[in-house]
């Protein structure tokens, strides 16, 4: 099983090498990178490229590691016992399987995505160490041990909101997805919008990359936001010449709400536009 990208996902050579190394080593692939660089989509494309089922565990601030294994619903069992329900004699009826249990017992080797692990409590990664290492866990309520039929391909994403424990990092293969250069961005655009006007893409990329370089920007626009913006530019039939205009009134590009996602950044560009107009009048 080797991953080489797909028709809808442009994977750089270092990224494909990282994916295949994690598969060979049978270790989780920990993927970091700024939001919008395709970390989550990577797992979907790996599953597609390898023809494997995808199991997604979306992590929240309240998620506990135990939920990935199973949960015992004691409250429902107590209620059913009070109602005389015959199901209470079988405790397994009140065991809810988690995503790891699902991945361990899948009929085919799956891709398991643990998405945004850094959102959870700091102890969350450590709580998963043994299960991810041994690929098995014990169900205390039923006395059974759940072992992985086939070791799943585990992809773990992080936005660096929290530092991950060293013990956890030692058990992972790590890859940081760098922000794409202009050539890679062009390839990504070509994959998503084949046949789009070359001049429009050229001007859009120039504007987009220039915006990312503006000092003081709180949130740089991402690759996914570039694709949204291009879709709007095509839909509204914006001419390439409109993007090229750089006087004070046109400093903020049309439909900038797809790129600038907070009032501080919009205000920053408005101030830059004001300064440019003032300099032009002074000249």
TrEMBL record:
Residues 25-183 form the AAA+ ATPase domain. Keywords: ATP-binding, Nucleotide-binding. It holds the Pfam family AAA_5. InterPro entries: AAA+_ATPase, ATPase_dyneun-rel_AAA, CbbQ/NirQ/NorQ/GpvN, P-loop_NTPase. GO terms for molecular function: ATP binding. This is ATP-binding protein. It comes from the Bacteria.
